[in-house]
Amino acid sequence: MHFIHARSRHPNPVPLLLIPPFPFTNLSFRHITDIFANPNDPDVDQPFHFVMPSLPGLGFSDPLPNSVHTVSKTAEMLNTLMKQLGYKYYIASNSGSSVTPNGSIDWKIINHLAASYPDSCLGVHLVSPPWKAPEARKNPVEWLKLTVAKSLKAGILGYSKEDIASLRASDREKAKKKGSDMTTIGAFSAYDPNTLTYALCDSPTGLLVFFLTLIRALGSEKEFTATELVTIAKLTWLPGPEGALRLWAENHILAKEEAELKPSHRVKAAITVFLTDDGASQNGPDSTQKTDSLSPFSYVCPNWGKQHYDVVWTGRIQGKQGLLAWERPQIIADGVRSLAKALLAVDKRLYEVERRRRTA
């Protein structure tokens, strides 16, 4: 497994595992390393020992054998990697929205780490986790809370006013664009069998078209140069795209099994979600930032994850998600720093590497 490892030069760093958004490689995000490892003001911004791998079959990471369960095996490899680097305890984060067609792979790997290795992965930062609204049949109490909050248009029963405004706006958009939402269609058409077939069998040009379609569907505001686009496609083509595509295929085949996997105990989590235009600012443990564009995807309410995670911080970001690691990596950094702060307030094990270094 190929990985980027940047040790912070500042005191008291926290080990951080950052998973790049599928199907991109870690080499596409070298530019964000210092944001995490060497912030300008380490007294204000928590520094990290920063580890960012390429998932199996991407970049310079070898694909996994056909006989293994790719998502759980990848999570096992990542946990082993952190231990081999000397990090007995660490936190982990994904770096792109989990409610996009490609983001569910990142989410499943993070969820596996939290569920299977809670003694080493002490907390996770989740970007728009793909949780569903509570259903009356499965969870009548939570369904009733949501129904009352939406009916009263009020920030009550675990929901904020921003949550309710975004949920209602999301419902309106779904109803208005049902069957003709080109953003959603575009997002999924990048993974259409014909698109993938050409990308896999025809030539590297087909794979380049795949990435162009995906970047456009995700609403990226970054102006990619021709060199950047070719490099992105090349890093997938060189190891053989079949490994990455098998990871994507298994992601769909095992969707139900993975959705039912839940942490054995409530691991601490920081949640970043994206509001519609109606969201307003708030202070305290929840924070809101503003951007200029709308999110094309369904709103995910942080309250829906509290039955699975101990949610210690929520960041509500106004605007669309886009390609965070390129366009707004500071949003990811804010989430993991808020998670680290909440963990360190009650658990100093994340400082163990620094303590060992000082006593060596």
From TrEMBL:
GO MF annotation, one: epoxide hydrolase activity
Gene3D superfamilies recorded: alpha/beta hydrolase
Keywords from the named record: Hydrolase
InterPro entries per the UniProt record, alphabetical: AB_hydrolase_fold, Epoxide_hydrolase
SUPFAM superfamilies named among the record's database cross-references: alpha/beta-Hydrolases
An individual GO BP term: epoxide metabolic process
Family under the similarity heading: Belongs to the peptidase S33 family.
Protein name as it appears in the record: Epoxide hydrolase
Organism, scientific name: Trichoderma gamsii
